[in-house]
Design goal:
single chain, mainly alpha, Proton glutamate symport protein, two-stranded antiparallel sheet, 2 strands
Amino acid sequence: MKLALHWQILIALFLAIFMGIWTGTDAMLFGVSWLAIYSFMGTLFLNALKMIVVPLVVSAIITGVANVGDQGGFGRLGAKTISYYVATSFIAIMIGLILVNVIQPGVSENQTVPVLVADEAVMSSVAGKSAGDVVDIFLRMIPVNVVDAAAQGQMLGLIFFSLLFGYFMTRLDGNTKATMNQFWQGIFEVMMLITGWVMKFAPIGVFGLVAASVAKTGLDQFENLAWFFLTVVLALAMHMLVVMPLLLRFVGKVTNPWLHFQAMAPALLTAFSTSSSSATLPITLNALENRAGVSNRVSSFVLPLGATVNMDGTALYECVAAVFIAQLFGVPLDFSTQLLIVVIALTTSIGVAGIPSASLVAISIILVAVGLPAEAIGLLLVVDRLLDMMRTMVNIFSDSVGAVIIARSEGEDQVLVSKNF
């Protein structure tokens, strides 16, 4: 089709909403439920994305670090990347904290303690969590078995190993170094070709994922938590539509920040439909290099790291959710307690897996730390899926903005100077 990919995906999204509402969960087609058809299409596409994540991340980081190390400036690029991640996550958390205190979505005239209804699977995943579990994030950085970490999709440990591997590749001499560079560069290029092929089926996959979600939940899934939903959406919108363009304009020196929204459209729509930063990573890499004009040297270093470490939308959501639940229960939060929430949200967002609803575990850690029952996360399940889709968009957009800013700071003047798509 000659129609641009992001338009194909957008059309698929609207068709999915229409079909999901029209068919619901009971409609059948030749003896097979429409829901089963949607789920098959969506799961097949998601599996294809997940299939390429591990080899793509490993090869991207290793080649990226090796290239940076060969050209010098590994420490400089790493420092810029981490500084950006910490700064933007902190800004996102503060936006969420200010809005939830101003709007106070959990406060009402007839304040009553809500009935706790939590999904059994969710409760089993958060059972026994506490602030001490933050330490586990750092323990997961060094996997006991890197092959097992790859099989289980433990991206934090995999990224740490890949960073080490790429760095020490630069310490090799002669033919061995050249062979290793060619080997990993070859794997990376093959994975990018596979990514391009998988992306041809993105509209079909997005249609299946969104249609299945709408068919099961409808569009009225957030009625009871409208103010909380509005607070989170407003905070995410401020971070993505105000803070990020300002950073592009004044830090990245990008004349027209809107070009970046257009360049990242396929990745943003895929992130919205999959709710997974990790699964969207191949599309983000492809869009950043081929549409935004960022070099492979920067994108292959910054993006895989950001898909695990930089979770602006997740950190914002964790903070708003914790304060919202405290308001519902009538628990006053003084300055020191809110500061604790900010610190834990910032720390746990670093280690949150890039998969749907993974932030619920991090939220349970915050709730226990401030003396609230972890079961209260059951209240969030009504709106979590839709908000998960939105905050994933913010996560990957922040990653891409970081890559653009760092590329510009490294002298890549060709980035976003014109429309490359």
